[in-house]
Amino acid sequence: MGFWSSVGSAISSAVSFVSNAVSSIGGALAGAASGLLKVAGPLLGDVTTVIQLVAKFFNVLKPSDNVEELGAKAMQADKKPEDFDSNAEYIDYLRNEIELDKEKFNKAGPVERSARTAVGASIASKGIEEAKGINIPAEFWVKVTEQSLKTNEISSIIQAFKDNKLEDYVAFSKGELSPKDEIKTGDKLAEIYKDLDPSLTDEEIEDKIMKMEATA
User: Fold this and answer.
1) For a Cys-Cys bond, which of 62, 118, 156, 185 suits 33, CB 3.0-4.6 Å?
2) What is the pLDDT of residues 74-115, one digit of tens each?
3) Which 8-state DSSP code applies to residue 85?
């Protein structure tokens, strides 16, 4: 907890660190990791933990996988995501063919740790996108982290919003939807919670949804 509480001041340096690693990880992954760092800020540790849990829920990552190690391996590797037909193949390559430099891994400071964690989490997030057929903006991960949602809640939202866009969920959480779209999104969330827990009353569901909007 001590390390992640001091991450805020290392974010801008971590973005530069990721940018300098573009030759190893490729432009798309570097852009995604930099974006995650900027949006998550001091919440990076909590946000990447959420991404890791959801990735394991969807079997994108194995139970023993760790996003920080995945990111470190990506920075060591000769191949980039662009060299593979799928993100799943890239993850398998990192998991099975790249041996972690444990000495370097253990000696890393806050900047490098933040950078490689963002890289690994971005790989996992891309894997979820690929598996579920949906674009997941970095801000979505920050919002569900701020809302303290459970893994099953987040996974249900991802699946339910495939036809809408998770950007709508983010906009809902920020109070930026039109009244019509706000009602539509609220109704969809109500359906999600009824499916997750049929014992919840309408009032309890409404309270949950109102708290989501309160994170704006």
Assistant:
1) 118
2) 999 999 999 999 999 999 999 999 999 999 999 999 999 999
3) S
